[in-house]
Structure formats: C-alpha cells, structure tokens
Q: What sequence folds into this?
C-alpha cells in the first residue's frame, strides 16, 4: 500500500524556468516530510524537509510547500539548472518513530539547456 | 563526521547463488540502520530496519534476510537469489530523531 505517491514519473523543464514536483500522502499521522535527490548509481541525498507545523520551507533555490488539508506537498526549484536533472523522491514519516521513511516512487526531472 | 559505506558496489550473480551485502557506519553510535531496494518503477522500498544489535524488523516477506552483528554493521543476505532480487540496494542510517536518513553509495545487483 503506497502511502506516499508521486504521480508524475517524469518532468522536463527548460533551464531558468521553475520546476514543480508534486507529492501526495494518505497517512494523516505523517508529520515530517522530506525530499531526496538521486543521481544514477548513487545513494539519495537529502535536499530539504518540512514539519507539519509549517506550510513552507525555503533553502536557496528550493522551496517545499505543505498543504495538510489536501495531504499534498510540492517542491519548487527556481531557477532550474541542468545539474538539477535527477530523480526526486518525496518521503514522509512520523517524527520520533525513528524507524523508516515512506518513499514515493520518484519523479525524474530533466532540465534542458 | 559520520560516514556510511556499503559494498560491493556492483554484483552479478546467477540464480540460486547466495548473497551478502555489507554496510558499516562510522562516527556515530547506536544508529538506526536500514536496507532499501530501488527496483525499476517501484521507488525506494524498505526491506529491513534495525534499532539495535540483533534487532531486525522485516517490512517485506521475501527470501532475503538481514543481520546486525555489531552496532554499526548491517548485512543483507540471501541463501538463494531469484531473478526478482535484481535491483539497486541501499543501506541507510538515522539517529532516530529527525527522521532524516543518510544513504550509502548503493550496490547494484544483477541476477542472471
């Protein structure tokens, strides 16, 4: 049962434009959300996170928005750069559970020059 | 600083052969340890997690097993590999507090 869903397997954006990656979740107990970036043949690396007490968190070109009522979060990358081309995984957990993150299937982002 | 290493990086094994992937963490004590698998079109699937030596929880029933013989060592094993075991295996650790996972470099397993 997929509790975290990324319904767009791929996304193509022009360099300089905004990339918006979406993620939905079904478990209302999730209170901590993360985005990971993954290049081929490498482990995922942490990008940005947000707790359920916030609705926005910004770090440089990356902003994550959380809409708890809709159980939806999104990652905005502005401006997009070719080096941002990677697979992006959305993940969710219950803070303090310490056991595991629930991951979406990932969205492959391609930023074209 | 904390580091995580897993090996081998790539492995090609025939069906029915055994498997052993090893993961070690340095620079922290009593980490939570995890094995994930990334298979085509399936995202990151949690296979096992461990909150301490000898404590293993399995998320997905299968022919794989995990062991934690030491605090910072996590091993993924199989006695007989199946074709469906092919994938990219990732070891990860966390401190258990923030929920953030730190991943190893990954091991690409191809079962022929």
A:
């Amino acid at each position: 049962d997929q509790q975290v869903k990324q319904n767009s397997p791929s996304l193509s954006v022009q360099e300089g434009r905004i990339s918006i990656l979406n993620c939905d979740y079904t478990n209302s107990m999730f209170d901590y959300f993360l985005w990971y970036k993954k290049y081929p043949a490498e482990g995922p690396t942490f990008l940005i996170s947000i707790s359920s007490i916030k609705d926005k968190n910004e770090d440089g070109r990356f902003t994550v928005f959380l809409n708890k009522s809709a159980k939806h979060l999104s990652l905005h990358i502005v401006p997009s750069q070719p080096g941002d081309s990677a697979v992006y995984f959305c993940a969710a957990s219950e803070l303090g559970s310490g056991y595991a993150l629930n991951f979406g299937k990932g969205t492959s982002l391609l930023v074209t020059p | 600083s904390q580091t995580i290493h897993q090996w081998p990086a790539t492995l090609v094994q025939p069906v029915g052969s055994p498997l052993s992937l090893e993961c070690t963490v340095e620079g922290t004590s009593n980490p939570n340890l995890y094995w994930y698998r990334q298979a085509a079109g399936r995202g990151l699937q949690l296979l096992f997690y461990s909150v301490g030596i000898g404590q293993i929880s399995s998320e997905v029933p299968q022919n794989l097993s995990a062991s934690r013989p030491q605090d910072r060592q996590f091993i993924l094993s199989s006695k007989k590999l199946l074709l469906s075991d092919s994938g990219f295996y990732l070891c990860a650790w966390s401190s258990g507090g923030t929920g953030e996972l730190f991943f190893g470099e990954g091991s690409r397993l191809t079962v022929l």
Observations:
- The CA atoms of residues 47 and 62 of chain B lie 9 Å apart.
- Chain B has a mean pLDDT of 90.
- DSSP finds no helices and eleven strands in chain B.
